[in-house]
Design brief:
Elements: H1 19-41, H2 46-51, E1 63-69, E2 75-80, E3 90-97, E4 124-132, E5 138-144, H3 146-149, H4 156-162, H5 175-187, H6 189-209, E6 223-228, H7 231-241
Antiparallel strand pairs: 1-2, 2-3, 3-4, 4-5, 5-6
């Protein structure tokens, strides 16, 4: 998919993020480091934790098999791989389901939608995917088209309001992996917001070019925006910005 809209135009300058939020992001970076510490002591990593006991790793299957869901926050995630993406082992898809969505936030209405979308008590908001390398560390963040995860599709500003609701606060399948993923979405919150705004702008551009088509179901539009990441480097930049 090609677009005239560059992702970097939607991403915030770190110095422009309010100091109080940068301090919260720094706390999330420390949480991530602690998760890595306890996992490394056992010779483990966050990906191995969700694959454990799942048998042979099969592309497109969800790990764990029934996803991970927090009944208090209504946050959900799963890990999988597909289409042999270069340099990627797989990725986490993150969501918040209907019970965790703030009042007044409704899925986008598309009058010419060609596929039914989950609604009401089944509504679900996809936030971001976290790409993982072969060593079990995060290498990128990306957004996807609606059909990829069969989400309801919330407009960017609504998804941004939902983003802080993502919290997996239990020990299945792994306490450190759940803490790590929750912290990842806090650490990179401003970047995820930029990714979501870029996602909507790209889809609006596509829809304007093809007004009679449902571009949200176009299999040629898969990954919309991809941001390479390096947690250690970002955490150092964050610390420097707070000095």
């Amino acid at each position: 998919m090609s677009s005239t809209l560059r992702l970097d135009h939607f991403l915030p300058d770190l110095a422009g993020v309010p100091r109080a939020r940068r301090m919260q992001m720094q706390a999330a970076a420390r949480e991530i480091a602690e998760c890595y510490r306890v996992l490394r002591k056992g010779g483990l990593n966050v990906v191995g934790e969700v694959l454990r006991g799942g048998g042979e790793f099969v592309e497109m299957d969800h790990y764990p098999a029934d996803d991970v869901f927090d009944g208090d926050s209504h946050a959900q995630y799963y890990y999988h791989a597909h289409r042999g993406v270069d340099a990627e082992h797989g990725h986490f898809h993150t969501f918040v389901r209907a019970g965790g969505i703030p009042d007044g936030r409704q899925p986008l209405t598309v009058p010419h939608a060609s596929e039914a979308r989950p609604g009401g008590g089944d509504a679900i908001c996809h936030l971001v995917a976290v790409s993982m390398d072969g060593w079990g560390y995060p290498s990128g963040l990306f957004t996807t088209n609606r059909w990829v995860t069969d989400e309801s599709w919330y407009a960017a500003e609504d998804a941004i309001a939902i983003l802080p609701r993502f919290e997996i606060d239990h020990a299945f399948p792994s306490w450190p992996t759940n803490r790590w993923l929750s912290a990842m979405l806090r650490l990179y919150g401003p970047q995820i917001e930029g990714l979501l705004r870029h996602r909507d702008a790209v889809m609006a551009e596509c829809q304007a070019e093809r007004p009679d088509e449902d571009v949200y179901e176009d299999r040629r539009i898969d990954v919309i925006g991809y941001l390479p990441i390096a947690v250690d480097t970002f955490a150092e930049a964050l610390t420097d910005s707070l000095r």
